[in-house]
Design a protein that fits this description.
homodimer, alpha+beta, Jelly Rolls, Arc Repressor Mutant, subunit A, 2 domains, six-stranded antiparallel beta sheet, three-stranded antiparallel beta sheet, 5 helices, 32% helix, 25% strand, elongated, disordered C terminus, DNA-binding, transcription (chains A, B), WH_DNA-bd_sf (chains A, B), DNA binding (chains A, B)
Chain lengths: 240, 240
DNA sequence: CGCCTGTTTGAGGGACGTCAAGTCCCGTGG
DNA sequence: CCACGGGACTTGACGTCCCTCAAACAGGCG
């Protein structure tokens, strides 16, 4: 999952249709904390997320980390390049994954239909990543966090049934490394949004969106974060 | 082109082999300043760069811009998503491009070999973009500019014949919007590299790499930019 | 209950952005 | 040929957003 301009988000990757019939596909359940693969491993299969959340990361030698994406239901992870994975992939919450063996994609026994769908998935991936460039390169901390919450709400709404609640299965430092910030800045920004009445933080992994429009506005850089007065609570002269 | 960790760079996309034989492919020359397509245009063809340099950009409503990538010889641009381009594409220096009509890729008359090669190209693109995430999210201005120069040197070395010279056909603000900086910061950083003796700036579009190893070190965050003394000019107590 | 890890909050500093004033380059025209 | 003008680039002064460092706090687990 990449943070995009929420309204422009393309539909989730549909289930790879034809592949379901293949003997090469298996559905498996992975526990939280499991590793699916490491950067550099030879690619033998791709995974489509059916439930749960994955995390894709890259490391620099000096320890700096970038979370490349989160894998939500519908997403495909494990795209190979030159036969190797180029991120680490870990399971954040117990996940049901459909595995596609690479042999089903290559060589003479390759399934052309599956091949075509994989290309579509890769092209969607490229588009989503381009959106994410804009965010990493050009957005402020508030815009980044607001965008993140907006997209999380959309992506997980099917699970929770509610568009007003975001479930954050990942740690603050995962969020930070995804958005190109520090944990402290992520934490501070969330507090700021809470104090201004735009969100409420139920518990560390659950954020309630009190003012979706304001949040969306912030994600686009269209409004400044400000006093609670902006949300109708005039007269409250609390610290902004 | 994405700025990657230079040493890990994957080989350029090889020419789409089978496609050359197709009647659907044409080589065309485009002048600097030409536009190839806009974001949102219907995709009718992809382009492989044979010579020259392209620029792929995205815009936010408020005018903020992100240069998504530069298209150098070997690169393929115009990957569709849901049938549309999702960047603008402009020609920076006169370019010879091979156009692949999308009809050659889709439907019943689709060429399966070409299809397969396109998937490989898309997967390479994804890998390169993931590298670029790391840079946008986690690197300092010096690291970004140094990385950019390193990759430029590699990508263009076949043209210039020299690995010690980088040709920068794009403007400073293109570089800034690619790296997630401002023109001023790009300019200052280049000056800083020049003053420390790591590069020389022949003219606005030509940078000579005097100390490739130092530059590479900076791109990796392994060394601090410092006095010229570091490069052997001990005793020079000039401003660092 | 105490430890441990993750999170929040605070104070302070630094890197980069903003704003503004040069400087350079190049094309145009006298 | 030089003067002029305009746009891109460079440089400087200053501000600010976010990072760094540090301490307090909170929740989970023995």
């Amino acid at each position: 999952m990449y943070v995009t301009i929420p309204s422009e988000q393309t539909p989730f990757a549909p289930q790879l249709r034809c592949a379901r019939k293949q003997a090469t596909t298996v559905t498996k359940v992975f526990k939280a904390g499991n590793n699916l693969y490491f950067e550099g491993d030879k690619v033998d299969r791709l995974y489509q997320v059916q439930s749960g959340v994955l995390r894709l990361t890259r490391l620099l030698e000096d320890g700096r980390r970038q979370v490349i994406a989160f894998g939500f239901p519908g997403d495909i992870v494990g795209f190979p390049c030159d036969g190797r994975y180029h991120t680490d992939c870990d399971v954040l919450t117990e996940a049901r994954l459909q595995a596609y063996h690479l042999s089903a994609l290559e060589g003479e026994n390759g399934n052309p239909e599956l091949h075509k769908e994989l290309l579509q998935a890769a092209l969607r991936e490229i588009s989503a990543m381009q959106d994410h460039f804009m965010m990493l390169g050009r957005k402020s901390a508030v815009e980044k966090v607001a965008s993140f919450l907006c997209v999380l709400t959309e992506r997980m709404s099917s699970d929770t049934g509610s568009r007003n609640q975001a479930f954050l299965p990942m740690s603050r430092s995962d969020i930070a490394d995804f958005l190109g910030l520090t944990t402290e800045t992520v934490s501070r920004t969330l507090s700021q949004l809470r104090k201004s009445g735009i969100i409420a933080i139920n518990n560390i992994h659950t954020v309630v969106i009190l003012q979706p429009n304001a949040l969306f506005g912030l994600s686009q850089g269209r409004e400044d974060i400000d006093c609670p007065s902006k949300s109708g609570l005039h007269g409250l002269a609390r610290a902004c």
